[in-house]
Amino acid sequence: MSAFWRGKRVLVTGHTGFKGAWLSLWLTRLGAEVHGFALPPGTTPALFDQLGLAAMMDHRLGDIRDAGAVRSAVEAVQPDVVLHLAAQSLVRRSYREPVETWAVNVQGTVHLLDALRTLERTCAVVIVTTDKVYQNREWSHAYREGDRLGGHDPYSASKAATELAVSSYRSAFFEGAPVRIASARAGNVIGGGDWAEDRIVPDIVRALGRGEPVAIRNPAAVRPWQHVLEPLSGYLSLARQLFETGDPALTSAFNFGPEPGDVRTVSDLVDAALSRWPGRREASAEAGAPHEAGLLGLTIDRAAAVLDWYPRWRFDDTVAATIDWYRQVDGGADPRTVSLDQIEMYGTP
After folding, report:
1. N or C: which end of the chain has fewer CB within 10 A?
2. Which residues are CB-contacts of 175 (< 8 A; sequence separation ≥ 6)?
3. What are phi and psi of 303, to 5 degrees?
4. Distance (Å, rounded) from C-alpha 152 to C-alpha 290?
5. Contact yes or no for 142/299 (Cβ under 8 A)
6. Per-residue confidence (pLDDT) for residue 286, from 0 to 100
7. Where are the extended beta strands (E) located within the chain?
């Protein structure tokens, strides 16, 4: 894997976000020539800034909703690999800003796909969506790639629509073309350096840092928790195999999630976090709160069978790495050093 990425031109959209920053750091570690295209970081602090990534890569500011800017970036970079992470990724924000959510997630992806039609070179493209693309019936079995798409909230529905746009462009414009396109659906991702609003781990860390109890909105909600390095390793493995083999079986959707035993409740996550960073918890019922899924799981059999990809860290490992990152950085450790240490601990994908 390391040999493959050395010298590859990689375009990462959304590189200033939480997952994008981790991915960009990992790619630079693997020796790739990393080009980013994104809006400025949207949080304070921001992992992108904490890692000093602007000095380590080609840092391009641009809006995925600007078709001309997207096309210019693709034409300038002439990428070997594209990893598309740019998105409006917050469920609760999607209720407040539905039009923006649809514009970023669907039309932004269409702008990228259309720009990629100009490439005349082999290029592996991974479009990142979410585990929430499935029509969630709150049933006990985990969702497979062939299950019906849907979405109650604007975020989930827009990501399901993104999958349809990817499938349409792939069939209409990229069959037999050197540009090979797959999509990746990851579970609930946690890890150090996430500072977003309305996410459980940043909420935990902010509360503990202030000496306040951790408020839990939906303690019984079940999610496929995984450390951020897990799906990123899946994206990297998928992109490499797309580029190297061109196997048509790879130009489709893949789930990336934890082992079945690591699909746990929000309450379990909070308790595990508090075992690493002692504090208090309290229930926080919210009148009139927007709908959020109560039960969600993914089947990763296809990624295992086709890509030989498996998660490496169990639930306790995931929470330990996440909370330890925040505690070390809170204690004065360098965020880049802590992050690189965790990448080394995880190992080459």
Report:
1. N
2. none
3. -60, -35
4. 10
5. yes
6. 59
7. 9-13, 33-38, 58-61, 81-84, 123-128, 179-186, 188-190, 214-216, 222-227, 253-256, 263-265, 281-283
| SS3 at position 223 | strand
CA distance 106 to 163: 9
What's the burial of 281, exposed, middle or buried (CB within 10 Å: 0-12/13-18/19+)? middle
Name residue, tokens 């990462």: 12
Match 């602090």 to its residue by tokens.
Answer: 45
Tokens encoding 97 = 């800003």
Query: Rounded CA gap, 228 and 197, in Å?
Result: 17
Structural contact between residues 30 and 6, judged by C-beta atoms closer than 8 angstroms? yes
pLDDT, average across residues 124-134: 96
Query: Which residues pair with residue 143 across a beta bridge?
Result: 298
Phi, psi dihedrals of residue 111, rounded to the nearest 5°:
-60, -40
At 296, the pLDDT band (50, 70, 90 cuts) reads: confident
126/317 Cα distance (integer angstroms): 27
Structure tokens belonging to residue 201? 């781990």
The pLDDT of residue 183 is 98
Q: With the C-alpha atoms ordered 270, 158, 349, 310, is the resulting torsion angle positive or negative?
A: positive
pLDDT confidence of residue 198: 84
Report whether 1 contacts 25 (CB < 8 A). no
**Token pair 């030989």: residue:** 308
Q: Give burial (CB, 10 Å; 0-12/13-18/19+) of 194.
A: buried
* 95, 249, 302, 345 from 14: Cα distances, Å: 21, 27, 26, 25
Q: From the CA atom positions of the chain, what is the Rg in Å?
A: 19
CB atoms within 10 A of CB 3: 8
Question: Distance (Å, rounded) from C-alpha 15 to C-alpha 207?
Answer: 27
Q: Which residue has the tokens 């609930």?
A: 188
Contact (CB, 8 A) for 116 and 17: no
Which run of H or E residues covers position 344? helix 335-346
Answer whether 0.70 is exceeded by the pTM: yes
